[in-house]
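Anyone else keep sequences and structure tokens together like this?

Example one:
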Amino acid sequence: MIEKPQSSQKNNTQQKKQNVRFVTVSEFNEGQRIDNFLMRELKNVPRSHIYRILRKGEVRVDKKRAKPTRKLQAGEVVRIPPMVLPEQKKSTLAPQQLLDQLEKAILLEDQDLILINKPAGLAVHGGTASPYGLIEAFRQLRQNLPFVELAHRLDKETSGIVILAKNRKALLSLHDLFKSGGIDKYYQTLVHGQWKAGTQHVTNTLHKERGRKKKVQVQEGGKVASSIFYPKKIYSDTTLMEVKLLTGRMHQIRTQLADKEFPILGDTQYGNFALNREYKKRFGLKRLFLHSFRVKFKLPLSGKSYQQEIPLAPDLLAVLSKLD
């Protein structure tokens, strides 16, 4: 149980006493681990406290103790013990203009998933720098949906196709596909330099550096990353590339291209500052030139096949129209 702080301690955080709760597991949470279920139910409670009440047996599933790895079934009743919770901060709502934009950006929707064309500049998750992201804004847009989750991530400055799951079974099925390489994901990007090596299958290991700046570098001992690079059009100083991801490592395309000395234009982390400034001034490139334009997969849950392709974002097309 989370203990209430002594009155003598200085604490500016408002607190709220919560009574014992009994939550019935819905079909949308079926198959979810009890620890992850509690983290959603108790959003402001530290993970350490959640594991503590599980170890002590204060959390019960159908009146029985549950280990953190216990997977829930629809209809089971979870007992959540009384505790003192910090008062939740009022969340920042996404503006109506963004909600309207997201509504128009829906590419496909059925009973299991949603494909949406994420605009550049919108993070997939809210955080310290962004009070809301794609998933928070979409939940605000579709408040009637009992369940909607991101199936994968896309960098904030990258535009293009993102997959959302509308139920837990679909989410787990999509996760299995990503792990097994069952989802074909293609990107388009503009790099500096003339790529004359033809189609290249690049495999190396990527290591994520520690620190606040989440940066990745090619380094032995890291996680294996594999991509196939196809030159689509070679300009005087640049090349429009198509990339097929075979693995889904953080900043994979950006890191691999920078390592081959073909930095993505507009990339503020792995690119060239002087080149980015030049292409912004001459061609109006104001962000990372990276766009997720095609996905193809078959969902084992339903046996349904999906194939979606979209054109380059208008701002990136405008840049290409000015190149020679």
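And example two:
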Amino acid sequence: MNPAIRPCSFSIVSLVSMKKTLLLSNHYEGIPLEILTKAVGDRFRLLVLDRADREELLRMVPEADYLLVSGRLQIDREVIEKAGRLRMVQRTGVGLDNMDLACLKEKGIPLFVNRGVNAISVAEHTLMLMLGTLKRAYAVNLQMRQGVWKKQATGLTTHELSGKTIGIIGAGSIGQAVIKLLSGFQVDILYYDPYRLPSEKEEELGITYMDLEDLLAQADLVSLHCAYDPEKGYVIAERELSLMKDGAVLINTARGRLVKEAALITALESGKLSACGIDTFEEEPPAGVSRLASYDQVLLSPHVAGVSYEAFSRMMELAADNIALFDQGKTEEIKGNRIV
């Protein structure tokens, strides 16, 4: 053998084993897994949980160099301390209610979110729920499927979006996307956010700032687009519902724990609320069939507002790209927002 030609000491297996490990804190299969696998490519060794439960996460997290956080499993101190190789955490979206931020900061582990990546998807779903509740889409569709034809009697129970006053709680990227979609419907838009927008932005969007109580009292439809703060708890409970107009509509595509469901059901039964559109629930998934499903003036969806095919693909691509940029030391090129 020519001494200048030596067999390579690295097998394909050893080259693969040199790749850093990216662990998804959820179980994907089918199309979601195909999208994630394509987004990651051959840049990392991709692991997903065999089942989406805490025990499985605790078993697998010691292998993770990078953690892609999806779903509702808690990334708490126990999980973080078991992740001895962990270099960085990337959220697929923006929610932080399942993250131990203090522990991540203490351990010096950066956390990035994909702010605004699914804003259009959530905004479109919100608009669908607004129109669907006003037009009583569920009840009308059910009548047709049962062979019931009551044109005037049914039609006169529906309402137009045009001319209504809309209250937006939370004017971040999703709230503003909803506002922009509403701009063609000839509605008045009020908003509340703990961090008021600059006056020039309010003028550009055509919106009026109000404190929460005044907004609730004046809005025909109230739509939630704010984060959940466990220290503050519910944004909408008995008191807030009592402040709303009789016959108002409530839309929640943000976080289920923003709304006290028992109070919401009472408001529906009393007629205080005429309808609601709910994509997020106080308990997810609900234990069995949600109690809200027994009301035909309610539209329900299983927390899908932000996971349209297009939005999900963007989330996975951006998350995988951010992790790769971090791995290459190109943190200044990361498009996500650093939280910790």
